[in-house]
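User: I'll paste a sequence; please echo it back and then give the predicted structure.

Assistant: Echoing your sequence first, then the prediction.
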Amino acid sequence: MPARPLLLPVETLNREFDAKLLLALHAAERDWQPIIGKRATVRDHLHEFPPSVYFSKGFRSVNGPLFRIIDGLGHAIVGLDEESLVIVSDDMLLLRMDRKALAPVRLTFAWGANDARVFGLADGLKHKPIIASGNPRVDLLRPELAGYFAPEATKIRDRFGRFALFNTNFAMVNHFLPNQTRLRFAKWVPAERVREMKSGLLGHKAKLLDAFLKLLPGLAEALRPDALVIRPHPSENWQIWYDAASGLDNVHVVHDGSVGPWLAAADVLIHNGCTSAVEASIIGTPALSYRPVKAPGYDNDLPNGLSLQFEDGDALTAEVVAIVRRHDNARHQLDPGRQAILDAHVSALSGPLACERLLDEIERNADILRPNANARKRVATRIWHLVRRAYRSSAKPSAKTLGKPDYVRHKFPGIGVGEVNERIDRFRATLGRFDGFAAEEIQPDLFRIVGRAA
């Protein structure tokens, strides 16, 4: 495949950027022209790029209008759903996808065999290539990449000493945007089914949130003088956790950087149904799931199943304290049963990195990723895209969009070219490759990976 731009949009800086930067560097080695940056910025400038391969972070029904623009401009859509690893059920994932939105998607990647199976059930993806490649986020947790996060992990440990990490997962009932759940289903789903699913899931999440808030004071007191670090979900309103930590001098609410160094530095992870438990299982940090209430059909079975599970808060607290006080820096090993669960859901835990597998498949499927040659369609789509962009920028905020620019900044607060190049240098030092490559700023929050001589 001749060199083409590879567009790597990033929605959530702390969750996705490092992994997609690693993918960009692997692509640059293969003579691709990687462009990485804030998703909204990539979207607004789609018409300025020559026909590219666009790497989407999801396939939900709300992506339909954007996908039609991307496809109409001659770009080929491939992607990996960042949120398909941890799902409540197959139905919950499928109800958020529709055939029309998925029609332009040409190549689908999956975290592992399980979500590849579910994608194969979706109208719009059937009879298209679906590859259980793994996610570059997993690459960052493998032993080969341990050195990448080591400096940050050391700083975290120096700052907090021994600590338990609590990763929250309550955006559905504590969203950054007031009175929004961000739980959207495809338009074909009957309204009664939507109400049923929303009521069940939101009710369950609300009970769990209340239980965790009640747990915190006693857990903090038992841990004293060691620390409890709360890392809120990037889509949540963090104020509720600042309020909960008020007056508890060994509780800290932080959301600096990627989760990797935090998991590496922590003695133990506390959660309920959070993707970080899967990441902890890979990196070797013990994961404890607090399950004071259960709701079959609304619990996240994978992260809970990889963890030690506790229904009683006192029992959970005792185990957390025991692990933190153990002063044992050895990495936790999953038992064979849990390892089998992990293997069924996550590919590329060993062997070639997910980055390499993804690019191999993109190059192997070059024929189905050819640019759309319909010049008339491209011109018409360009006009539609520019009109749509102008309308979005000039329209007065509605109840639906009020606060959305703040939410976008909340998830992607910005990154400079110096910091991007510092991360490239760390990848170079860790893996002993990528000599000669650097980031060049196209505009704020948007970068091209180039050779240093360029």
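The domain at 149-345 is CATH 3.40.50.2000 (Rossmann fold). The chain has a mean pLDDT of 91.
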